[in-house]
């Protein structure tokens, strides 16, 4: 028997510009808002939910709060007694929650799943926050001489690209400028009202200070508070909910998920003779396309990729197959990844523009893909989009997951 089709009924994203800690609010308020707004928006009653999956990476470190699988039932009494789990894979935590929910629905154990991702990162000063995030690297084995683990790691990836293919850092800054520009049209983006000058996307050390290696401030996503949620259902659920059949929804047509070891040095060493710097990322993309029965990435109308740094979007471009390995710069220079380009990438702003609450990012990407294919993306809409892909990574591309979302 073939697995049930997984439908996305919709969801909700909180305002990623909000500072919940400054407002005196915690995970209870954040998760309470995203759950209640999701159920209201999609005409789903709490009693319809069969299972809950929560993506969160660093709850204990930033807030001291673990056991976040229980938070939805803590703040929404009608959810008490439902099975719920928390999932962690660094920045890919939200996608792990989605995959777990899909497996539950495909097994027919449940027919309706609430999936959410949430993170609070503004509870401590920036330097301490950066140290907390470093827990997703191989602790005690890499990046030990810096508090800024992830800028250092992705600067090392940039150096590897430069060694193998050549890399012009102007192309990295062009990615940042494009994503922050896209975010200005996004009413939920962290940077939508931030002010920049013409020098902010240059090598000007004052307007765009160096952070690590070739990476500068605007090459980096920022600490963010936020949550996103989606409701996933099976065919069986829609058969018994006639009132929802005519609503605009989408389906997950394909998925890919690969994990390798933590060490960045080992990843780069293992791929030394491969055309791709991260072959497993390419394979995860290929898995998603194959499951969706698509020949290549040109069959989608746009992509949400993981630009925790401009370098991670740069590597996503060639691993997706938009260009040949090492030639991402060609798509950037030609304008192919712009919202009105041949294959738009991050039309709502990506992580650099929208924000990156780590546990929420994978779910937010899926939600934005859903919005695109159901014509609900507002000013960020890619005209005529009916198929979108996502690529979400955790750590130094240690975990990667991606989805292909199609209009139903």
Commentary on this structure:
The protein is α/β, with parallel strands linked by helices and 408 residues long. Helix content is 34%, strand content 17%. The chain has a 9-stranded mixed β-sheet, sandwiched between helices. A two-stranded antiparallel sheet has the order 5-6. Strand 5 and strand 6 (215-216) form a beta hairpin. The longest helix has 16 residues, at 149-164. The protein is globular, with a radius of gyration of 20 Å.
Overall geometry: globular
Major sheet summary line: 9 strands, mixed
Secondary structure category? alpha/beta
How many E-type strands? 11
The helix/strand order is: EHEHHEHEHHHEEEHEHHEHHHHEE
Question: What is the radius of gyration computed over CA atoms, rounded to a whole number of angstroms?
Answer: 20 Å
The proportion of residues in beta strands is 15-25%
**Average pLDDT value?**
96
Number of helices: 14
Helix content: 25-40%
Distance between the termini: 21 Å
Unreliable spans: none
Strand order of the largest sheet: 3-2-4-7-1-8-11-10-9
Notable traits:
two-stranded antiparallel sheet; alpha/beta; 11 strands; 408 residues
């Amino acid at each position: 028997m073939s697995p049930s089709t997984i439908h996305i009924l919709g969801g909700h994203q909180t305002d990623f510009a909000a500072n919940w800690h400054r407002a005196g609010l915690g995970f209870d308020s954040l998760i309470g808002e995203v759950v209640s707004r999701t159920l209201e928006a999609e005409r789903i009653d709490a009693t319809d939910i069969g299972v809950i999956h929560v993506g969160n990476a660093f709850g204990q470190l930033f807030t001291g709060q673990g056991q976040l699988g229980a938070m939805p039932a803590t703040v929404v009494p009608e959810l008490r007694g439902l099975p719920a789990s928390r999932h962690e894979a660094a920045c890919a935590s939200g996608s792990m929650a989605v995959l777990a929910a899909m497996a539950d629905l495909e097994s027919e154990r449940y027919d309706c799943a609430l999936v959410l991702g949430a993170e609070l990162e503004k509870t401590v000063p920036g330097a301490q926050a950066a140290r907390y995030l470093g827990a997703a690297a191989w602790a005690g084995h890499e990046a030990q001489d810096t508090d800024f683990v992830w800028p250092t790691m992705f600067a090392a990836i940039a150096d590897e690209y430069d060694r193998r293919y050549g890399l012009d850092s102007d192309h990295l800054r062009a990615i940042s400028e494009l994503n922050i520009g896209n975010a200005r049209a996004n009413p939920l983006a962290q940077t939508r009202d931030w002010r920049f000058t013409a020098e902010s996307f240059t090598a000007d050390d004052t307007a765009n200070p160096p952070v690590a290696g070739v990476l500068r401030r605007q090459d980096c996503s920022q600490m963010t508070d936020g949550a996103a949620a989606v409701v996933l259902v099976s065919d069986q659920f829609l058969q018994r909910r006639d009132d929802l059949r005519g609503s605009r929804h989408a389906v997950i047509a394909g998925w890919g998920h690969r994990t390798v070891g933590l060490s960045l040095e080992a990843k780069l060493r293992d791929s030394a003779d491969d055309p791709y710097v991260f072959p497993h990322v390419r394979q995860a993309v290929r898995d998603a396309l194959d499951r969706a029965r698509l020949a290549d990435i040109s069959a989608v109308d746009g992509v949400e990729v993981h630009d925790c740094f401009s370098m991670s979007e740069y590597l996503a471009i060639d691993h997706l197959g938009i260009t040949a390995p090492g030639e991402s710069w060609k798509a950037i220079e030609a304008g192919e990844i712009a919202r009105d380009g041949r294959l738009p990438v991050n039309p709502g702003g990506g992580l650099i523009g929208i924000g990156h609450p780590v546990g929420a990012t994978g779910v937010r990407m899926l939600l934005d893909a859903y919005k695109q294919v159901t014509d609900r993306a507002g000013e960020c809409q890619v005209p005529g989009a009916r198929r979108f892909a996502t690529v979400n990574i955790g750590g130094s591309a240690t975990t990667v997951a991606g989805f292909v979302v199609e209009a139903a």
